[in-house]
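Hey, I'm writing a tutorial for new members on how sequence and structure tokens pair up, and I'd like a real worked example in the thread rather than a made-up one. If someone can provide the structure for the chain below, I'll link this post from the tutorial.
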Amino acid sequence: MLKPMVTSHTPEQYGKVAVLLGGDSAEREVSLNSGNTVLNALLRQGVDAFAFDPAERPLTDLIDLNVDRALIMLHGRGGEDGSMQGALQLLKIPYTGSRVLGSALAMDKIHTKQVWQSLGLPTAKYEIADKRRFDAGKCSAIMEKLGNEVMVKPAQEGSSIGMAKVTSAKQLETAVQDAFQYDDQVLLEQYIDGPEFTVSVVQGQALPSIRMSTPHTFYDYAAKYQDNTTEYFCPSGLSEAQEVQLASLASRAFDAISGSGWGRVDVMQDNQRQFYLLEANTVPGMTEKSLVPKAAKVAGLSFDELVLSILSTSFDSVAYIAND
């Protein structure tokens, strides 16, 4: 496993950096934690950086502040869905991570699955529930088709917000209606019984996989951010051949949806050791206990080095913006 490239830029070459954090999505608190942790890492390394919360001030203030680049730590809608990326392009401000298309696709679990499916990449069987024409009378048929254990996921929420695992038609109907509070489209996905893995991608390099284990029904919001019962294994326990296979799958999946710069791909493995892609994240959590830093540490990259590697992806958008 190769170590991702550490940036060779000096702190002065980054110029004035706005760390975008907070926002007004359902993941605001997670974003504030990520953003402040990243900001402190930049300041420790002498980068002229400051926090900027677009929920508290207009984005055009970035122009008045003479910002040279933006490090996006906004999770969820308004920061991870392509809208912030598009706004920064219009303002001619280089930014980190995926461009508009990759961000928008990754944010939508349904369209992500459809792209992967069209390319023959492995993903679980699924159905789509649309709020405008959802027929509760079809819940029994959906359960049977998807194996009688189903994951219910709002199409465009992160951090497992609005998700539920159901084992009956009645539970499915209730969970779908609950998920409609977050999104007009809901992904109904066959439950894969087996371990969950995540693979971080930084500057085109897949980092060592992490296996998550939780006593919860699934890896939900509480398991991710609130409890101390979740266990993380890195190395994940896969054989060398399986590790290579998983790294290749994650890289292909990230590239398929036009992901770039850095991100994370989540995967399940069934009892036959077949991998199934779940989703991609273009702005994953970045506290020192988050998954990307855990994988980076095993790859030989400190948290501060990782943050600079992410910030350096903003240079990739300079030519893109100039030609926009």
